Predict the structure.
Amino acid sequence: MQTTPSFSPLYQQIKALILRSLQAGEWKPAEAIPSEMELATRYSVSQGTVRKAVDELAAENLLMRRQGKGTFVATHSARHVQTRFLRLVSDQNNAETLEQAERVERTITTCNRQRATADIAKALKLKTGDSVVYIQRVLTYKNASGVSTPTILEDIWLAGNPFKGLNLERLAESKAPMYAMFEAEFGVNMVRADEQIRAVNPTQEQAALLQVKTDTPLLRVERIAYTYNDTPIEVRTGLYRTDTRHYRNELQ
Amino acid sequence: MQTTPSFSPLYQQIKALILRSLQAGEWKPAEAIPSEMELATRYSVSQGTVRKAVDELAAENLLMRRQGKGTFVATHSARHVQTRFLRLVSDQNNAETLEQAERVERTITTCNRQRATADIAKALKLKTGDSVVYIQRVLTYKNASGVSTPTILEDIWLAGNPFKGLNLERLAESKAPMYAMFEAEFGVNMVRADEQIRAVNPTQEQAALLQVKTDTPLLRVERIAYTYNDTPIEVRTGLYRTDTRHYRNELQ
DNA sequence: CAGTGGTCTAGACCACCAA
DNA sequence: TGGTGGTCTAGACCACTGC
């Protein structure tokens, strides 16, 4: 054992190897990866070393462990993690709301291919003018009384290359959350995101889409989302109404 | 070894014992706790079991490990963790800004003892009418050109009991961040917090204190902060100007 | 140099799951 | 029943710190 080519702990090297396999798509989302013993023999290390590598990947939400069953590649399709990246929740955040799976309607208002502006290109680590997919959509929540409230307006820019063939039709016919669809249809797994939050007023057009007045304070949430290896792949600007909902955060 | 009175992993029991010692103040913030070997003999378990318990406490930011030196009780006084609970950062978030330690001026506008309202009491797990300390303050940032901008307005309610003797003078004379002072003077260590974020407009009074117009959109950040064992001990409502700063968040 | 945390191993046993 | 992850141990060695 103990190959140590460059100097880093063995388990970090194993972690990098597993990461590479994930990235290469050797194991797809929701599939099981080989057992700890198999990985140990494959990499010629002890089970404990594999365990530590897998522990870290599980802590970063790239893998999911299930005792007695195996270790699985994280997926956005699993029921309880669909809202992993959506921090806007109802003010009466009761079990009820979670049970009812929050009837959300997604309306795509725009979907086309564009040339990246300097800002977008920089955030996605592309060159200005490179092809990107632009999407605008509105999320509308329906409460128990049947009242519909447009609540979230999103402008989304996706790196063009990984999303060849994405268009309005394919978006519209997908009923799954967007990240679950990206994963299933394009093999793009969102793993991490940074957000910057500000309070703003909407423009005329934005106000119309959210059915609010232009002097309504809204949250503007600017997100950059990453796949494996810190590769930025999506820029997303969300406008959130916070009259009956709030952005929740836990500080540790 | 292997006592297992109730059923939970040994390392969880060890973790609970260490937590109890922290809570009881056996080891003060910034002090070293006993070495892993000492703890192992003290609790009659192997070093590996202690290690796993300490690992989890370190992951939760209750302990800090330093190779070759020891394991230390987390503190809000340490230079690089002073802003652990303040997520509002400059838009040009460069090294410079961090270096310069962001000249902040804290102005206490109010400090008195009050009877808890129903809302505050509930959040702090007290009874309506119990004694609480109320503080209002303004944080003003000074940039390199010497321009001062009042940026954060905070209303703070503290559980009365742990903060006996806290008054305007003691607050005013403390130059350290508030949580560092709480820790040093009252033995209260903030460990975790939940925040709810909305976009709002300020009232007349709030607008005056932040030197903005009443139609300026602001972030309202409602925080409940906890000590050991998930005991709520502070309710804090912040109003943040986001014209040159933003609330940053990392999603995983 | 001695003492601390960090890594790695090998092996035992437990808890959970499915067939 | 056999396979999976989860716990626990004992011992070896490494890397960092400070005297």
Observations:
- Chain B touches chain A at residues 59-61, 84-85, 87, 192-201, 215, 217-219, 222-223, 240, 242, 246-252 (CB under 8 Å).
- The radius of gyration of chain B is 21 Å.
